[in-house]
């Protein structure tokens, strides 16, 4: 569970209809009907289960209860704990927080000339390069390859927003679409990264929750977290440390615990270094967390009484182990906790687990645990 979900769950649950149930609505309507009938006719009435009037009241109660649900939902949409979609965006408007509409992946392109020239060669802003699959990257600014030199580098952005344009390996974006005289070769020097999709409700809710910390440039840690997350919606966790007075060390990761590229790290540093987002006296450094590798080696057993569903349990155990790996790398500084791994495997249906790796390991606040490999053995069935 994410940090913001855990945080908001700690706030009291609210009901704008006093937790009224359908059964209560039905009983109230039947009671009101029989009371009014007796008041008008002077005779008491009992409605059997098959009584037509009772059936009409049932049908009406369903509609009325639906209205109750609409009212309750409408009220809850004004609260951060429950709001979603456009209602959440309108809560954000109260704190001047908007949904990040996504960002384009970026790469560093190197342009090389066929030979040294006697005058500068201009690479115009917007020059397009492709990997040959209909996806284009364009240069972010105009650069010059100076006379007497053969090459120059420039940042390029994908022309389409989204995380699926991350991951183009170095050297694969190498087809020049915009003709430029004397350019013989172009290619990306690093893997494309930094592309993100439209910000999720969960991420937006966390930004709204952190927003009050951003109102001052007094340097609170939550303010830096807010601004880093605000820069790119693919950033999922941020750790802020002050190892010395006036020195701020910021580490962050992306969706799935992925480490940011050097290009994205530099972009975040440039963004956060704006004088409106930090105290002038703060010296800021931004980096990926340090990686602490670990391996998983274990054997698990299944109860003999569960033999008929052993295959299903084995599948569920594998899912549980992968879920643990994802959980372990989802938060910077999260300790390597084999007890949690064992509990997930047991919950998946295993009888017991013998684990040799990992051992409990305290992870420094500026580091992240990374699974380097796993050896999972099914030990077979055992008597209950």
Task: Quickly describe the structure.
Residues 111-195 form the Baseplate protein J-like barrel domain. This protein has 384 residues and is α+β, with helices and mostly antiparallel strands. 32% of the residues lie in helices and 25% in strands.
Q: Strands of the largest sheet, in order across it?
A: 7-3-4-6-1-8
Number of helices: 9
Mean pLDDT: 92
Question: What would the principal axes of the Cα set say about the shape?
Answer: extended
Radius of gyration: 30 Å
Secondary-structure element sequence? Answer: HHHHEEEEEEEEHHEEHEEHHEE
Query: Which class of secondary structure composition applies to the elements?
Result: alpha+beta
Domain Baseplate protein J-like barrel: 111-195
Pfam family, one: Baseplate_J
Protein name: Baseplate J/gp47 family protein
Domain Baseplate J-like central: 217-287
Describe it:
Residues 111-195 form the Baseplate protein J-like barrel domain. InterPro entries: Barrel_Baseplate_J-like (IPR006949), Baseplate_assembly_J_pred (IPR014507), Baseplate_J_M (IPR058531), Phage_Baseplate_Assmbl_Protein (IPR052399). Residues 217-287 form the Baseplate J-like central domain. It comes from Lachnotalea glycerini. This is Baseplate J/gp47 family protein. The chain has 384 residues and is of the alpha+beta class. The protein has four domains: 3-82, no CATH class; 106-188; 214-288, 2-Layer Sandwich (GMP Synthetase, Chain A, domain 3), CATH 3.30.300; 292-382, no CATH class. The protein is 32% helix and 25% strand. It has nine helices and 14 strands. It has helices at 3-9, 22-41, 52-76, 85-93, 201-210, 221-231, 262-272, 310-328, 338-347, and strands at 106-113, 121-123, 128-130, 136-139, 143-145, 151-158, 175-176, 183-188, 235-244, 247-254, 283-287, 290-303, 352-357, 367-382. A six-stranded antiparallel sheet has the order 7-3-4-6-1-8, with no helix packed on it. The chain has a three-stranded mixed sheet with strand order 9-10-11, covered by helices on one side. Strand 3 (128-130) and strand 4 (136-139) form a beta hairpin. The mean pLDDT is 92.
């Amino acid at each position: 569970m994410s940090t913001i979900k855990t945080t908001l769950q700690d706030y009291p649950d609210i009901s704008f209809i006093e937790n009224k149930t359908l059964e209560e609505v039905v009983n109230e309507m039947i009671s009101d009907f029989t009371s009014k009938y007796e008041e008008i006719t002077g005779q008491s009435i009992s409605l059997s289960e098959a009584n037509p009037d009772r059936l009409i009241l049932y049908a009406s109660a369903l509609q009325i209860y639906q209205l109750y649900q609409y009212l309750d939902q409408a009220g809850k949409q004004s609260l951060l704990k429950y709001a979603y979609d456009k209602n959440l965006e309108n809560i954000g408007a109260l704190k001047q927080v908007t949904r990040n509409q996504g960002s384009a992946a970026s790469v560093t392109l190197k342009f090389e000339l066929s030979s040294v020239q006697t005058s500068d060669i201009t690479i115009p802003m917007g020059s397009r390069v492709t990997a040959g699959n209909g996806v284009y990257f364009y240069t972010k600014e105009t650069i010059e390859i100076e006379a007497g030199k053969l090459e120059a580098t420039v940042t390029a952005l994908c022309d389409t927003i989204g995380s699926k344009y991350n991951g183009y390996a170095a050297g694969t974006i190498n087809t020049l679409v915009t003709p430029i005289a004397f350019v013989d070769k172009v290619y990306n020097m690093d893997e494309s990264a930094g592309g993100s999709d439209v910000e999720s409700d969960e991420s937006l809710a966390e930004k709204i929750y952190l927003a009050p910390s951003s109102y001052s440039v007094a340097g609170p840690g939550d303010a830096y977290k807010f601004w880093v997350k605000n820069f790119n919606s693919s950033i999922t966790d941020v750790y802020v440390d002050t190892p010395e007075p006036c020195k701020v060390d910021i580490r962050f990761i992306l969706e799935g615990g992925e480490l940011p590229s050097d290009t994205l790290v530099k972009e975040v540093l440039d963004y956060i270094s704006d004088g409106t987002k930090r105290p002038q006296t703060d010296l800021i450094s931004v980096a990926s967390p340090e990686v602490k590798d670990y391996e998983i080696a274990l054997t698990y057993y299944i109860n003999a009484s569960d033999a008929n569903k052993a295959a299903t349990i084995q599948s569920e155990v594998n899912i549980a182990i992968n879920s643990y790996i994802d959980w372990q790398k989802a938060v910077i500084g999260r300790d390597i906790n084999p007890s949690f791994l064992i509990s997930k495997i047991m919950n998946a249906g295993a009888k017991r687990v013998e684990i040799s790796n990992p051992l409990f390991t305290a992870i420094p606040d500026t580091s992240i645990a990374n699974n380097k490999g796993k050896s999972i053995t099914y030990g077979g069935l055992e008597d209950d």
